[in-house]
Amino acid sequence: MQLSIKTTGLLGRHLPQGSSRNRGVVELPDGSTVQDLLNTLAIPDDGRCYVSLNDSMLQADELDSTVLTETDKIVLMAPITAG
After folding, report:
1. What digits encode the pLDDT tens for the residues 18-72?
2. 2-77, what's its fold?
3. Domain limits, the chain
4. Model pTM greater than 0.85?
5. In the chain, fewer beta carbons within 10 Å around the N or the C end?
6. 77, 78, 73: which is closest to 3 by C-alpha?
């Protein structure tokens, strides 16, 4: 399945080659989970990526069990920091 992904901040550097403006398309097998997507994009599992799925924030313990579909609206967000 092909998933349309939007990212914020520096997470755009994890999108596949050819992506632009923090938007890209990722090919994954049917039945893939959000964690499979993060692994495919090589996004570190360090808590520095928040996932919005269909306008709802996912908790860390939901990443392994949430199965994706091609119609899902996925936004990967970097945390906002100030200093």
Report:
1. 999 999 999 999 999 999 999 999 998 887 899 999 999 999 999 999 999 999 9
2. Ubiquitin-like (UB roll) (3.10.20)
3. 2-77
4. yes
5. C
6. 73
